[in-house]
Design goal:
The complex is a heterodimer of chains A (about 625) and B (about 70). Chain A is mainly alpha-helical and about 625 residues long. Chain A has 2 domains: about 400 residues, Up-down Bundle (Sodium/glucose cotransporter); about 90 residues, Beta Barrel (Barwin-like endoglucanases), CATH 2.40.40.20. In chain A, strands 2-4-3-6-1-5 form a 6-stranded mixed sheet. In chain A, helix 8 packs across helix 15 and helix 11 packs across helix 19. In chain B, helix 1 packs antiparallel against helix 2. Chain B contains 2 helices and no strands. The termini of chain B are close together. Chains A and B meet through helix 5, helix 10, helix 11 and helix 13 of A and helix 1 and helix 2 of B.
Chain lengths: ~625, ~70
């Protein structure tokens, strides 16, 4: 094996990391007792837990490689894709999020059946599964590309070992394991990225005449490398307008509205408002930090190249910027830790996608085909094996993606092929009542056909090019997204005007225009929105109905709750983030203040401990 | 540095993106998904505006600094 990098200490650190994460994830398997727990974590977690776990999902192993490369080539404009997600937040926070949460959608394809018809659901299932499994394959490939150079074992064997390692905790744990391992991995990712940045700044400070690392970084980059946005339409492979349409529009809508893994994360939040907080905090604070985390190796590398000629190899390959710079500025062991962060990125992104894929397999293939005949226990077991199957297919697909010129090209092909029809379908479905079932199927099929035409004949894309130069033999890159969105939306609009509109009753709760009544649909009765206090109570067992919990009259009075209202009950230790919690319905009050009566199933589901107080709050 | 390197991308981002943002706000307000007379939702309305201005400010400041260093 040529060009092996790193030391034995680095290899030990990476192996230790894998072992710890697998054990940690497997431990949380005990919290997955039903398919609801396995896929959605029981809808119980606090916003901060969801936020950190989203970080780890959003940063894939390819992110470090991809953005470091762009940072090395173009400077601060590498951050563009992490800082253009706010425009669709109003529609996400107050349109899509309440719909998926309150309508209890098990998957994105399920929305397509409820909103349109079963045919639309099956096409969406196929496209989403292909997208997610392919994405997992790319994650495997990216990490294996880095690891096989460190361990010196063949690429495909490295891929298989990574797949086995991630299977261990996923197989038993499900969504709860995903959330908790991603919590840890999210911190590791951010810490390792910022550590690398600090080491880079220290290196620059020590090896240049500038007073501080920041000063050295700033002054070692050219003015154009300091710009936060790329040049408007040049060069063809990295320009602002193309990236805006591909990432800022198609990518942002795809990520927020169609990423099944992300959607499942929000479904695991204890309430819609907690989901909103998680999403807003993530985009406002975590994404800018993430942009620094994934890009800084490239900035540091470029600054070193500019300020200290010869320090880094002049012919450094774009894809090797991250590993080369990390190996150059980090000491043995620390380099291993940084690569472990790359592992964290892979594991946390792929576990989310694997869990999401098995959710789609159970919800959108198994349940509709078997008419949901299997018991929950059987479905849970099947879900575990579905996640293994997904990984096997992903491993088989790795050589296909390895045949692309680069990981970026493979990734870009994915986005441009599978995202736009789904983006248009879901977006118009939510915000345009008139949008018909025939139109969404035409969007999927005719839209996809026109997209393929655009790939074969770039002249179709030229009117949308904004002056971007056509690459001979390779067509347009990012700006193709604008053409794809345009043709898919165009087909959807035209077919809608020539086909019959769905009856209103079929759309109840499925468009933004019904969001104001979603709470009532969710609860099944009038919503109680009178503000009440949170109360601390001790629990005792009673033989009651499955979902009923009983409080004293006074405690219910403090909460401003009535019989039939919904209540959230959690272990009062805040740092558990809702791990030990349940949702229930207020039953007949009793007379024992400070006591909540729950049944055995509720105690077991919430994992409540003797003598530890619970915090109760009325939901609606 | 030319206009297409500095302010044109900024204007396009917050112009076209701003249209999408305002369209979203219009839809959620018109559909009552966000009730502006409901205290909790009112706070969210401010958060949404803040987010837009926050990112616009970061990008504008970095462009000004980069242009100033040329």
């Amino acid at each position: 094996m040529e060009n092996i990098v790193g030391t034995n200490l680095d290899r030990v650190v990476i192996l230790m990391y894998f072992t710890i994460v697998m054990g940690f994830g497997a431990y949380f398997g005990k919290y997955s007792r039903t398919t609801s727990d396995y896929f959605f974590g029981g809808r119980r977690f606090a916003w901060w837990l969801i936020t950190i776990s989203i970080v780890a999902t959003g940063i894939g192993s390819h992110s470090f490689v991809k953005y470091s490369t762009k940072a090395y080539q173009y400077g601060f404009s590498s951050t563009m894709t992490y800082m253009n997600d706010w425009f669709f937040m109003p529609l996400f926070l107050f349109g899509w999020l309440p719909i998926i949460y309150y309508m209890k959608l098990g998957s994105i394809p399920e929305y397509f059946e409820k909103r349109f018809n079963r045919k639309a659901r099956y096409i969406a299932t196929f496209m989403i599964l292909m997208y997610m499994i392919g994405y997992i394959a790319i994650q495997f490939l990216t990490l294996a590309t880095a690891l096989y150079k460190i361990y010196g074992i063949p690429l495909m064997l490295t891929v298989i070992l990574i797949a086995i390692a991630t299977t261990v905790y996923m197989h038993f744990g499900g969504q709860t394991s995903v959330i908790f391992t991603d919590l840890i991995q999210g911190f590791i990712l951010i810490f390792a990225g910022l550590l690398l940045f600090t080491l880079g700044l220290n290196f620059l400070s020590a090896n240049t005449a500038y007073g501080s690392g920041f000063e050295a970084l700033w002054n070692s980059l050219s003015p154009s490398e300091k710009l936060p946005l790329a040049n408007f339409n040049d060069p063809p492979d990295f320009n602002f307008v193309g990236i805006f349409w591909q990432d800022g529009v198609a990518g942002s809508i795809g990520f927020l509205f169609l990423n099944q893994g992300l959607i499942m994360r929000f479904m695991a939040a204890k309430s819609v408002n907690e989901g909103r907080k998680a999403a807003a905090f993530n985009v406002l604070f975590i994404l800018p930090i993430s942009a620094i985390v994934v890009s800084n190796a490239g900035w540091i590398g470029k600054a070193i190249s500019n300020a200290i000629p010869g320090a880094l190899p002049a012919d450094i390959a774009p894809n090797e910027v991250f590993v080369s710079v990390a190996n150059f500025i980090a000491a043995p062991g620390v380099f291993g830790f940084v690569i472990a962060a790359l592992c964290a990125a892979l594991m946390s992104t792929s576990d989310t996608l694997v869990n999401a894929s098995s959710s789609v397999i159970i919800n959108d293939i198994y349940r509709p085909l078997t008419k949901n005949k299997g018991s929950d226990k059987e479905q849970l077991e099947l879900a575990r094996w579905a996640s293994v199957l997904v990984k096997v297919i992903a491993v088989i697909l790795v050589p296909f993606f390895n045949s692309f010129d680069s990981i970026y090209e493979a990734h870009g092909w994915f986005h441009s092929t599978f995202t736009p029809p789904l983006v248009v379908g879901v977006f118009m479905g939510i915000f345009w009542k008139r949008f018909t079932s025939s139109a969404v199927i035409a969007t999927f099929l005719i839209g996809a056909f026109l997209m393929i035409l655009g790939q074969i004949y770039p002249a179709f894309i030229s009117p949308f090019s904004h002056g971007i130069e056509l690459r001979p033999g390779r067509g347009y890159s990012y700006i193709g997204a604008l053409y794809n969105i345009f043709v898919c939306a165009g087909v959807g609009i035209i077919v809608t005007f020539f086909t019959k509109q769905s009856r209103d009753k079929n759309l109840n709760g499925l468009t933004v225009f019904d969001v104001h009544k979603l709470k009532m649909i969710f609860k099944g009765s009038e919503v109680n929105e009178i503000k009440g206090e949170t109360v601390l109570v001790n629990w005792e067992l009673y033989n009651g109905d499955a979902n009923i919990v009983r409080f004293s009259k006074n405690d219910m009075g403090s909460m401003n709750a009535k019989k039939g209202d919904l209540v959230y009950l959690e272990d009062s230790r805040w740092w558990l983030g809702g791990l030990k919690s349940i949702h229930g319905t207020f039953g007949e009050p009793h007379d024992k203040d400070g006591i909540v009566q729950i049944n055995i199933d509720q105690r077991d589901s919430g994992q409540f401990l003797e003598k530890l107080t619970l915090k109760a709050e009325k939901e609606m | 540095m030319t206009f297409s390197q500095t302010w044109l991308p900024f204007l396009y981002l917050y112009g076209v993106g701003g249209i999408a943002f305002l369209f979203g706000l219009f839809i959620i307000l018109k559909s009552n998904a966000l009730r502006h007379n409901y205290q909790k939702h009112k706070s969210w309305l401010w958060v949404l505006f803040y987010g837009y201005l926050f990112y616009a400010a970061i990008h504008a400041i970095l462009i000004i600094l980069a242009v100033g260093s040329a």
